[in-house]
Amino acid sequence: MKIKSNYILLITLISVFSVGCSSSKKTSPEEYQPKGLAVGTTIENFTAIDSKSVEYSLDKALESGPVVLIFIRGQWCPVCNKHMSLMQDSLQYIYEKGASLVVISPDKPEFIEKTIEKTGAEFTILYDESQKISDYFDVTFHPDGKTKLIYNSVLGAKLKEAHTDDSERLPVPATFIINKDKKIIWRQFDIDYKNRSTVSEIIHHLPTNQ
């Protein structure tokens, strides 16, 4: 009877431990899946500096027209660099709609300069210090250990060096169009980093009377 009781106790402890581990895993930061702000959300003003330490204000930019807001992962990301090059090639079409383009990067200004060198970007690229803007737009996530190893070792991301903190968090490379009323009127959001907004999509969804 004593052996049987000990066996039952052991099984119970294992079950409790397993449930506890499962619950912890579900609530860990690494398991959080960002959703991105929804269309119709009213955006609060934010400020940030560009690679030249010039301050940018969303409210001020919106005085001139809608803003196309794009998040990128950093200068080390080849898909981001290709996306930015495509945006640069068609930048005039965005301007013709009365809109401006601003890109948000977790990279420090000196690393943003590398993005500019690689893509020829003439639009504003902002330093998202401590991922405050990407957190606000709910696009920030924690890559797993294997993924971070590949990014840092193979692609030369140097996330701890390039970012403000040691969290090595990254943004989903999403796109939001914000109108002069400070509302999101369109977004492209996909946790698959290979899927990005196209210039034709952006042009199609930009308002015509602003």
Gist of the model:
The protein has 210 residues and is α+β, with helices and mostly antiparallel strands.
Describe the main β-sheet briefly: 7 strands, mixed
Count of strand segments: 9
Distance between the termini: 81 Å
Class by alpha and beta content: alpha+beta
Approximately what portion of the residues adopt beta-strand conformation? Answer: 15-25%
3D architecture notes:
It is a single chain. With 210 residues, the protein is α+β, with helices and mostly antiparallel strands. It contains nine helices and nine strands. It has helices at residues 2-27, 58-62, 78-89, 91-96, 109-119, 132-136, 145-154, 159-162, 199-205, and strands at residues 47-50, 55-57, 67-71, 100-105, 124-127, 140-141, 170-171, 175-178, 184-188. It has a seven-stranded mixed β-sheet. A hairpin with a 5-residue loop joins strand 8 and strand 9. The longest helix is centred in the N-terminal third of the chain and has 26 residues, at 2-27. The radius of gyration is 21 Å and the shape is globular. 30% of the residues are buried. Mean pLDDT is 88; it is low at 2-27.
